[in-house]
Design goal:
With 248 residues, the chain is α/β, with parallel strands linked by helices. Helices cover 33% and strands 25% of the residues. The protein is built from seven helices and ten strands. The chain has helices at 11-25, 41-53, 94-102, 115-127, 171-179, 204-212, 232-245, and strands spanning 34-35, 58-62, 69-76, 79-87, 107-108, 133-141, 144-152, 155-162, 190-195, 215-219. Helix 1 packs across helix 2 (41-53).
Length: 248
Amino acid sequence: MTMLPTDPYDIERIAGDLEQRIREEGWADSELVFNLTGGTKTMVLAAYRIAESRRAPFVYLQSEGRRSILYRYEFGDHGYRKARDEVLPALLTINDYIRAHVGRDPEQMRPKEDLGARFEAAIRDALQGCVDEVKQGVILGGALELDLVVRLGNQVGVIQAKTGEKAKKKEGLDQLNAACGRENLGTYTAKILTVNQRWDETLENLRELAGAWNITVIELPSFTPDSPSLSPEDQERLRREVRRVLGG
């Protein structure tokens, strides 16, 4: 995969950059398929314009509802028509997903020995076999460090794990919102905050904020400094909620 730098809001510039790349690569119209799923609305408009001028097919991937449905369109005598749609099987890995969004492979954090790292490891171990893939300690770049990334089918989620006083603060919510913004992993990436504290009425403001930001909060209070492991009940709650969020 090669990137094409362009202006995200100038339709003429985007269309010109696309046409130039097609000419440079020597692609025939019959070799082209345009994916109109991502990017800004102006990028979609420009790509559609090029697809229409070259009578090239285009596709749109629906990720809402936690399913991956690919709609295929083609041009005929009276404009475009839907050729078919299909539910896609699992086609990617976590590394594929991150590379597609940020343009590079993720880095792996060095394992730590503190209580927070043990909480992450307990979550990772509980999810093994429940999801298709789980990675601990993923660095997207810069200051963005993800405690865990999980995948079920083609659906990917980020889990931030907080213990103690950090579990009662806004930090984890902010980290998830940043990681899953459009400029990073995208708004269809599931956001999950796991805490080893109960969020009672004193933390109602955080619960409301999590709801507004579409972040699922999973309370796992059995994990404590004196007993750093998850009870069978908390493990089952974790698995059930993660699978629900990812559409399982």
